[in-house]
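Ticket closed. Logging final result for Glycosyl transferase family 1 domain-containing protein.
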Amino acid sequence: MREILILRPKIGFGIGGAEYHAGMVAVKLLEKGFKIGIIAHTISFPKEILKEIKFYPVKIKGFGSIPKHLFFIFQAKRLLSKLGNYKLISFFRYPYPSDLFIMCDPLIAHLLAQKRPFLAKLRPRYRILLNLEKKALLSAKKVISLFSLGKTLIKSYYPFAYEKTFICYRGMDFSKFNPLLKSQKNPLRKKWGFSEWDFLILFVGYDTRRKGLDLILKVLPNLPPKVKLIIAGAEGNSTERIHYLGKVKNLEEIYAMCDLFVLPTLYDPGALATLEALASGTPVITTHHDGTSEFVKEGLNGFVVERNISSLKSAILKAMHTPFDPVKIHHLINHLTWDNYVDCLLNYLDL
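Final structure:
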């Protein structure tokens, strides 16, 4: 049996969203009986999984993210040249041949277009990342977008890769994120120090600038006093209406006790937090720049808005008076399983 190799600098659980994504693919492929190798600098798996995978460690040297990035690529290429009879799934802008290139990171070309493209492209960092991105798309046999947005963006920025780009909808952990905890909404609020009368808005993310926290903070003073904002992931100074939780272990409890999840993102290829909220039965407000927005059905599980104060305020007020059903919200995405996702990847891997 051919070995399936998974490539990314860090892979596994508890070290990041894309890293978790690659880790889950490794676990599901193991469950399906495949021989799995991981090419990475850092891995994080339970002991029973570590026994089943072949780890090919890659050193990272240099100061700053770009030198480390480039050194990892150099080391990975040298390692792969010594291996044979494998299929390579890259979750990373690897500029050399891969069988599947998974677009789990933001598309740099589009991210720059959302900012100040001319000024950004002058920075060496972005020029290097753009070059790696283009080469990764050129070199991959097939490209996998996690949502429809990704394939649309490929057509706009890299039309040469459009015909070899396919959509495989990423999976969700429904054993952890589901509407059952909604029955414990008030006890959970008491545990976390909130009243049952509060209307709780949730924001989740570390990159607060790109994900639009500043926009929510501008809207909040214009909302009814009972509206409070909970911020998970980021650190900050809490006030009477704004509560920073930092890194949260039991995030499913936070989704369960909140009334609304809001992510006015500048760009997300597919925000995991949006899916976690929907899986938990919590309605969402996001933008068209979030790949997961294709699953948001107006009035049924949330709203998709323009990225400005008036649109966001209007949608939040509308959500406050909409009787959402947590079970129906969950059912709208319950087909997004890890098994379905990995089966889709295998279909394009041409084993």
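The two ends are 9 Å apart (CA to CA). No further action required.
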